[in-house]
Design goal:
By secondary structure, the chain is of the alpha/beta class. Helix content is about 45%, strand content about 10%. Strands 5-6-7-8-9-10 form a six-stranded parallel β-sheet. Strands 1-4 form a two-stranded antiparallel sheet. Strands 2-3 form a two-stranded antiparallel ribbon.
Length: about 350
Amino acid sequence: MADDFCYHIDHHGSLVRPAGLLAARAAGDPLALAAAEEQAVSAVAHLQRRLTLSAVGDGQFRREHFESVVYDHVDGFQPATGAQPLADAAGIPPARRRSAPASPQSTGRLADAEVAPVLAQIDRPVFVALPSPGYLAAVGSALADSAAVDEARARGEALAAILRAEIEALARDGVVYVVLGNPLYAPLLTSAGREQLAGRIDVDTVLRCLVEADRSAATGLDVPGHFRLGLDLTDSGPLPTTRRGYDPAALDTLLDETPFHRLCADFPADPAARLPLERIKPGLVLSLGVVDVSTSEPESVEALLDRLDPVIERRGEDDVAISTNAGFAASADLPLMNEEEQNTKLRLVETVARYYWGNEI
């Protein structure tokens, strides 16, 4: 399904937290923190509107980590212990890893508090990023044998039911776009990552386990026809392990008959490290992370256009969006740059997108 709603300017949800918000969180006064959150969310929503981003979020300002939207509202997650070779290969910091519960039970809605003030204030489409069920089930696991993988599969299916219900509720609220983030795919899909993991986990079995869980959250959704669901492979900048490219069969496992409308991935300057777009069927919108968040130095517009022109010519304009290659702060206390530098990067995304789509966006 092509993206008929022209969401051509994209980003990944997590933005640099303002200093006042961080200070309020550190002070520990719940009322002061709530007021600081409301003020910060209002300001960042209007910033995104001024940048004409195609969909607007709350910057994940209420989250400590990207995953907190689930960890804080689903009972049973515990600190991860022991080895987690897949999470290590994907570069997930230990502070963000949890062991998933056998029978997860949500304590209520996950992201309604995040989207409500944005929906109330901004007359643009609203989106929200959530961790995928496959990611949540596997990030804190060793995945060392078939029993561990079976355990992750069962927990991923249970988490998928919770995520599916939240996605449907967000769509009823008026959210138009939800993206499920799973950065564990990068080492499972790439030649260097698979080589690194060989002998430590059954790479193909684990890949299928994650795909099954994530597709379960995406399949059979009761949502409006204009609603879009994406899958995000990124996390905090250039994907690890891509230096020798992707394994074609592994990529086919992820993408064949995918229920997702959009795929968000890094699209670096090195052609050898890029997602092989020729293997991706028309109709799946590619949100290409050409603006690099791992450095505060802005790229040249001309260099980005040179990278993108062949893609636009080959795939057409409907199946491409322009983006950063990750969010700006997957953890509240670990921003990748300051606010001014972040906004320069977002303006660069907008500038490049306007070159192709002009007034359509």
